[in-house]
Amino acid sequence: MKKILGILLILAGGSFWSVPLRAQEYPGCFLIFDDENVIQLDEVCPLPPTVEGRAANPGFIEIPIKRRDAGIPVVDVLINGNKSFEMMFDTGASGTVITQTMAEQLGLEETGTARVNTASQNDLEVSVTQIDSIEINGIRADNLSVGISPTLDIGLLGQDFFGGYDVTIKEEIIEFRMRESASTGSP
What we know:
Helices cover 14% and strands 42% of the residues. The chain contains 3 helices and 15 strands. The strands form 4 sheets. Strands 6, 7, 8, 9, 10, 11, 12 and 13 form an 8-stranded mixed β-sheet that branches. Strands 5-15-14 form a 3-stranded antiparallel β-sheet, with no helix packed on it. The protein is elongated, with a radius of gyration of 22 Å.
């Protein structure tokens, strides 16, 4: 009897969980069925509380997407505490790269070279420099070694800046949630 009951429960559970699910179509937490019925689940997984449009939870930060370049989000970044630049939020880049123009405006000199692999080229030699800080809405990374590209028109913000966070890219914002293993402040 127990074996038959167990099989029935597995079959019943299998049919319930085979419902196709889609995410990010509506705000909050929800479930959409094949017949397009939506069940809100905000009581089960509530969104972080907000204060004047920003998250009140100190481990949750929203950054506005200024525009998109070839589908990649572009955000405003403060470098060395005094100059703001647009940079592409590049989830595929392990390191941050600034343009030659950015380096000149910041008064940065080449401190060395590094060999890197890019999406289009392997074992490429690039100039590197040291940046004191990069900051966006309270997320800050200090003492980063960054590449200088003579060919890019816009810088790339890489994993060395945001790798300590879980990141969700939405239509108009990028959400950062600090990982439990990340320390408070810089990742």
